[in-house]
Amino acid sequence: MAWRDLKNRIKRQVSDFLEIPSDVMLDLPKTVLVGNLQVFIENHRGIVEYTSESVRVIVGDGEIGVVGENLSLRNITSDEIIVEGKIKGLSINN
User: Fold this and answer.
1) Three-class SS of residue 30?
2) Is the pTM here over 0.85, yes or no?
3) What backbone phi and psi angles, to 5 degrees, belong to 32?
4) Within 10 A of 15 (CB to CB), how many other CB atoms are there?
5) How far apart are CA 74 and CA 92, in angstroms?
6) Domains of the chain listed by start with CATH number
7) Could you write out the DSSP letters of every residue in 37-72?
8) Which residue has better confidence, 92 or 61?
9) Most buried of 15, 23, 52, 64 (most Cβ within 10 A)?
């Protein structure tokens, strides 16, 4: 077992024992889709691509892609991004 897998397993067990949400303890991304108008992405590591048709955001060991029309970024903070527009799809790549 790789050191990283063991570390994540221990963190998950501690999270369960202390009843702390996994996304907080394991620094996992949290994505919330509101209809087809907004996507909230928490625990991001930065923006890879931004056009009016595509937004790609680095999260953990991969990235989240948003495709659509008239996409814009709103409320960009160090740990949260909101993408608005007509959202047609989401993808997760590890």
Assistant:
1) strand
2) no
3) -125, 120
4) 16
5) 21
6) 27-93 (2.60.40.2000)
7) TEEEEESEEEEEEE-SSEEEEEETTEEEEEEEEEEE
8) 92
9) 64
